[in-house]
């Protein structure tokens, strides 16, 4: 709370804490209020996206002002959905380092290789960003109990932020989710149900329980604000690179909030006039060979994914057989002239070792998958040696120790 208080002092003037105006459905254009509880578009079953008064923000604030504020995701509060500072539920998420990888770069033949190192976030993964935004907004709207189907890390984050918001949390996760995700959720007082199936089965059960008992469903893209928290990674990236964007972003894709969120951030920053060079990165979506619906759809040139049956990979966060935002993910990859790549579990384990041994970064398997994809794309000559390439390590390997290291 200390961070947010100091931020609030800064914006004492007539300026709004948030510049959000409303929510919109990207498919049909129907508008929804950001001051009432909303989920997804009722007409077309599509995600809703937050819209901000970017013209107003452009006039009132300069991009340099954000650097002077206390560290953390909420220093970008004008671009987040919460209306009042004291409604922000924060554990210190965001402002993760963008680390240069000189040794790995030299080894692989890239001169400008970086990793956005998300493992220092509360609860050990970048899920903290999205959940901080979603729980804060839910709390502001008077919601007292939240339910979430999760592949693991979103559950741990939900349990922690719900505890801090004095909310009840109900978490459904596959029974073979990493043990740490189960323990951290229970430790924070959440009710945890282990589902005999995948996140898709858990999602069905969560939806039913939400309707029957009035829980608010925080499923990826079925509520509008997790993606807003994730988008801040895009602002941090641009700020770290002197208000330019990298040439290539390699991102591990499950539900796709980070990829879709960053692409939204780039569009917002362009509208704000904050980018010195509006050239956008090519977005690389990485999935595991055992669950690659986005890769399959991309290779077939489709705009929606088929449900992936029998999904299996040690990168538990990537075990998402079909994202609710598949259409947006694919659209952003195509628009960016990016690509979708599937990598094997063996190559993920190999990449985990390399990142640790060459740069000292013990990545989550999902994060290591981005290095495996880099190696694969290098073999396909898809990358140039001087391009600025950013890998995303989305979580800490420490949460997966029994899954990834012991097996290898
Ligand atoms: C959830 C998760 C992902 C996938 O993120 P999305 O934004 O849902 O695509 C990647 N890595 C880790 C560690 C995760 O927990
Ligand atoms: Zn719609």
- Compute the CA-based radius of gyration: 20 Å
Secondary structure: number of strands = 13
What is the global morphology? globular
What's the number of helices? 14
How many structural domains does the protein architecture include?
Answer: 3
Largest sheet: 6 strands, mixed
**What are the bound molecules?**
pyridoxal-5'-phosphate, zinc ion
- Helix percent band: 25-40%
- Mean of residue pLDDT? 94
Description:
The protein is α/β, with parallel strands linked by helices. It folds into 3 domains: 7-87, no CATH class; 98-125 and 225-406, Rossmann fold; 127-217, 3-Layer(aba) Sandwich (Rossmann fold). 38% of the residues lie in helices and 16% in strands. The protein contains 14 helices and 13 strands. The protein has helices at residues 2-10, 54-60, 102-108, 127-140, 153-164, 179-187, 199-213, 226-240, 257-272, 293-299, 326-335, 345-359, 365-379, 401-404; strands spanning 20-25, 31-32, 48-52, 98-100, 112-117, 145-149, 168-174, 191-195, 216-217, 248-252, 282-288, 339-343, 388-393. It has a 6-stranded mixed beta sheet, with helices on both faces. A 4-stranded parallel beta sheet has the order 8-7-6-9, with helices on both faces. Strands 2-1-3 form a 3-stranded antiparallel beta sheet, with no helix packed on it. Bound molecules: pyridoxal-5'-phosphate and zinc ion. Residues 125, 127, 153, 220, 252-258, 317, 364, 366, 394-395 line the site of pyridoxal-5'-phosphate.
């Amino acid at each position: 709370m200390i961070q947010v208080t100091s931020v609030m002092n800064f914006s004492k003037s007539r300026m709004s804490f948030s510049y959000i105006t409303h929510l919109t459905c990207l498919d049909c254009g129907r508008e929804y209020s950001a001051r009432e509880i909303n989920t997804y578009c009722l007409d077309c079953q599509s995600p809703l996206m937050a819209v901000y008064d970017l013209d107003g923000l452009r006039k009132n604030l300069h991009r340099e002002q954000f650097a002077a504020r206390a560290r953390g995701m909420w220093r970008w509060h004008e671009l987040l959905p919460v209306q009042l500072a004291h409604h922000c539920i924060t554990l210190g998420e965001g402002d993760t380092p963008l680390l240069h990888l000189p040794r790995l770069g030299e080894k692989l033949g890239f001169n400008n290789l970086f990793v956005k190192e998300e493992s220092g976030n509360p609860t050990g993964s970048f899920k903290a960003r999205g959940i901080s935004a979603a729980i804060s907004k839910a709390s502001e709207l008077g919601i007292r109990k939240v339910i979430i189907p999760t592949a693991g890390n979103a559950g741990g984050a939900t349990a922690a932020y719900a505890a801090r918001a004095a909310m009840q949390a109900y978490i459904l996760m596959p029974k073979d989710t990493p043990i740490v995700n189960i323990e951290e959720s229970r430790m924070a007082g959440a009710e945890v149900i282990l589902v005999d199936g995948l996140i898709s089965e858990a999602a069905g059960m969560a939806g039913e329980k939400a309707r029957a008992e009035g829980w608010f469903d925080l499923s990826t893209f079925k509520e509008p604000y997790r993606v807003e928290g994730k988008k801040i990674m895009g602002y941090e990236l641009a700020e770290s690179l002197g208000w330019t964007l990298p040439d290539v972003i390699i991102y591990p894709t499950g539900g796709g909030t980070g990829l879709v969120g960053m692409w939204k951030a780039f569009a917002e920053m362009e509208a704000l006039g904050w980018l010195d060079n509006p050239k956008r990165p090519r977005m690389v979506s990485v999935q595991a060979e055992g669950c690659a619906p986005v890769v399959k759809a991309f290779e077939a040139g489709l705009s929606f994914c088929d449900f992936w049956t029998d999904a299996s990979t040690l990168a538990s966060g990537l075990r998402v057989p079909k994202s609710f935002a598949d259409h947006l993910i694919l659209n952003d990859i195509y628009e960016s002239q990016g690509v979708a790549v599937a990598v094997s579990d063996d190559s993920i384990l190999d990449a985990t070792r390399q990142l640790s041994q060459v740069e000292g970064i013990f990545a989550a398997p999902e994060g290591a998958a981005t290095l495996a994809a880099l190696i694969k794309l290098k073999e396909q000559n898809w990358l140039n040696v001087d391009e600025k390439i950013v890998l995303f390590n989305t979580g800490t390997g420490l949460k997966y120790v029994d899954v990834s290291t012991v097996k290898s």
